[in-house]
Design goal:
Length: about 130
Amino acid sequence: MSKLICILEDDAGIRDILQFLLLEEGYQVACYTTVNEFLSRKHINPDLYLLDVMLPDGNGMAVCKLLKADPQTAATPVIIMSAHADIKQMTSGCNAEEFVVKPFDIFVLLKKIVDLLNLKSAAKDR
């Protein structure tokens, strides 16, 4: 069963590239362009969230805080993507597991995804 990655990204170019590459790597992908669209999703429990910070109707940091506060999604890894390079400020704001600065190296991002999914699987097996 392939892992499901949920992407919240308003930039069509970035979203399309991420979706294409993740599908090529064998993942299932669900994409959202706005916070409202993301929050209205039904019965989707992904294995990992990939969230942009700057969105037209909100901010990925606030979404991350909501996910980490909800017992249903608190253990699901979150990667925050942003053009802002202040990693400490960004990650301390929402307890995301990882942070990538745009523009990012896709191979570095894929490694972070694999590492987080492996950690989640190992924790589940305990």
